[in-house]
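Sample intake — Deoxyribose-phosphate aldolase
Collected from: Panacibacter microcysteis
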Amino acid sequence: MELNRYIDHTILKPTTLVADIEKLCKEAREYNFAAVCVPPPFVKKAKHLLEGSGVKTATVIGFPFGYSATEAKIAEVLLAIVDGADELDMVINLIALKNNDWEYLANEINHIMPIVRQKQKVIKIIIESGILTNEEITRCCDLYGAAGIDYLKTSTGYAEAGATVEAVKLFKKHLPAAVKIKASGGIRTYGFARELVEAGAERLGCSAGVSIMQQASDDSTDY
């Protein structure tokens, strides 16, 4: 298992420095991670630092709470694409979900998807599974699976609960085969990362990517 190719090397804290982004991108090049995920103001910088490396540049939309208006999310998507983002991790409107307004959620994703597809970008939809019921997760799998997204993502890392093996398995059971799974939130050890991949995750959002790979290096079957 080449665990490095599953990792989105991530820094999203609101106090992120230019030096943090430079370090993140240097590490991503060194370990050949799948992508870096950075705050929107740093997309241009990351894209430049990763040029020629094969590491993708990802950013977040409507982060971390998801309750931005659909029009605001569209504006964020368009700016991220102009700045060079390859992948977009968008938080759904959890207020709409918790108030059972599935029509709002369908409208939101149906306005975003044509832009993403026209520009041939990857979209990952964050549903914050740690604060949802199994029924809500299943409905999300149905809605976003039908919308044709690229990845359903467990968590922002900002809620009280992050990724779990159980959530990944539930995603796997209810998503169409074409929709991949990204686990994120609280992934700090090689053992947990491997469990998530074995459960069906095809990307891992980690701020501890380097530490995880250092742990993995002890196992000759990995990196």
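Post-analysis note: Residues 102-118 form the longest helix (17 residues).
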